[in-house]
Amino acid sequence: MAAFASLTGDGIRMAALPLFTALSTRSPIAVSAVATAEVLPWLLVALPAGALVDRWSPRRVVFAAHCLRSVVAGGLAATVFTGHAQLPVLIGAAFLLTCGETFADPAFQLLLVELSGRERLDRANSWYVMAETLGLDLGGPLLAAGLFVWQPGACFAVNAGTFLVSATCVGFLPDVRVAGVPDPRQAPRPMRVQLVEGGRFLLRHKGLRVLVLAVVSAALAVSAANAMVSLYAVQTLAVRAALVPTLWVAQALGTLFAAWLVPRLAPRFGEGRVMVGALTLLGVAFVAVGAIPVAPAVWAAYLLVGVGAGGWNVLSATRRQRLTPSVLMGRVTSAYRMLAWGLMPLGAALAGPLARATSLATVFVVVGGIVVTVALTAARPLARPEPEQASR
Q: Smallest Cα–Cα separation from 90: which of 17, 23, 12?
């Protein structure tokens, strides 16, 4: 419930913020700037956040992060209601909201692993992806569609409320104590030492290194598509603004199907092969979005985007968590996010100039081609048998 509440609010904001930016500025550069600010904290803040998560109580970290995010989202709502939401305000709010997420995400990952048990991680991640899809990709965009027609500021006000609900739910969860974590009353080791330890483990572990290389390349490309999709729908497809969030609804339906299907396919065909197939499908679907600029075809392609993304997310998260000791979970998760998402600002920033130099449709064709190339390049190492599980 805690994850579902915060993810629903994120889904509202992720649909409403680029749409509000696109309609209020009509500028690909402005849309690209907000999208860049929204992912930049994964490059600048994620590593120290992960080290601090490994020092602190994960339950308290999630609680505090969501309370602070609620304040920022409420402030954004107030500026939209009063007509003061200029581009610097949108950029600042996007940046701060993701800063909070860089703390909440690794802490919640640790809670998930410890409360579910490593032997049940595939099932736990399947349920989490379903909750993520229902909230972030389905419920949130649907609510955004209705709220945006009435008042765009209401989208961000509801987002603030969902963070408060999530923080309240987290407060009732049992806390976890990971073996090997120093007593908080003792002087912690230097931050630099902790950061090096987490990054070294991630980059030296062959299985994790392959995941990182695949995700870094794909995330760079996909962030460019995500930055331009609202403007593409409004300008190229001539879709009404209120219908744009239904793109995420189509994607969510595909992800729900993948979350149900993938745990059944992996034992039969092998986890690695299913991961490669999911990543390839994701790339082909993005090529279709740009190559067939017709609204029904784009909505069908986004359904396949959801299938590919959902299959990859379930299996890659499970593999990463199983290979990471709990005592390093915060640092490894944050380092993974930094490397996987740290280049997303570059992808989002390049999307605007690429669209201006060519066309919005070209962005999606280029994105799809990159993702397919990554899938084929990583096919052999991903298909290798998974190494032994990491100890606690």
A: 17
